[in-house]
């Protein structure tokens, strides 16, 4: 898959903004608490519901990785040279930007030591290698959003195996096996580590075996070639949105017991992966002209989305630490969003134009 699809970049931009807004609302809740409640027809509505679900930008990133990288590799001969080239580019895509951020955060922490806690040499090494939230040490990440990176890197490692499985038994069976693995993994964690609150075991639940359904769903839609009319495409988009919203409301209905080990904790993530994959397929279908998702601002945000993802959280944390208590009103909470975004976007652009793009372009030249 070498064709440039603007809507995919737009979706990456949406995913990055969703995570940014989610963390802003969590760290600066005053504006959301003031603006979100709405009573209509005797029912209370939360206008910030989608911002509260902004963490779903992460599984959306995973679905897009499965779609893009699986589509690139699925028709290639999996020779040693092909795989080494693929893994080399994936490593260069992740580590340089992370290491640059780590160096900058270390300098900032000299003046703002509470930005991240002191680390031993071993913990620092684990973060440098991105062996974080991984057995046997389960080292915590320096930057909270880094928790997804080992999952992404693990997917790069096993993608050739998924492709071999697909070639052996077909993409439908391969997808079913991946979803079954995710469900079995999450069920096993719950059964073997009993507790009243599984948020403490979230790193284990969300390791690659527990998240493989998101990547597999993205990979699966690369095999679809459905000829929809305009009306059929619109109905499919509507179905994707309805399914997505229904799953959100289903989770909210059981949120009081969800983290206690409810069976929904086992199946909800694979189900939301299906709805996200359907959205991605609708957005990349030939009937979609991408007037919004393919717009220049969203495409640009998609290009710098990795930098947005890396930088928004430490920027927001730093604002909180520099002026604690200042952001407790709706006005200052909204100001925090503006300030953190105005700082995050230039940092993301610097990361993209001076680290990510040159390194990836250099590797392309060398490979050619």
From TrEMBL:
Q: Where is the signal peptide?
A: none
* EC class name: transferase
| Transferase keyword on record | yes
Instruction: Please provide, alphabetically and separated by semicolons, the GO molecular function terms listed in this UniProt record.
Output: acyltransferase activity
Q: What is its EC number?
A: 2.3.-.-
Enumerate the transmembrane spans: 12-35, 47-70, 91-112, 144-164, 171-190, 210-228, 235-255, 261-281, 293-313, 333-355
| Keywords for the protein's UniProt record, in alphabetical order | Acyltransferase, Membrane, Transferase, Transmembrane, Transmembrane helix
Domain Acyltransferase, which positions? 8-347
InterPro entries annotated for this entry? Acyl_transf_3_dom, Acyltransferase_3
- According to UniProt, the name of this protein is Acyltransferase family protein
The species this protein belongs to is Gilvimarinus japonicus
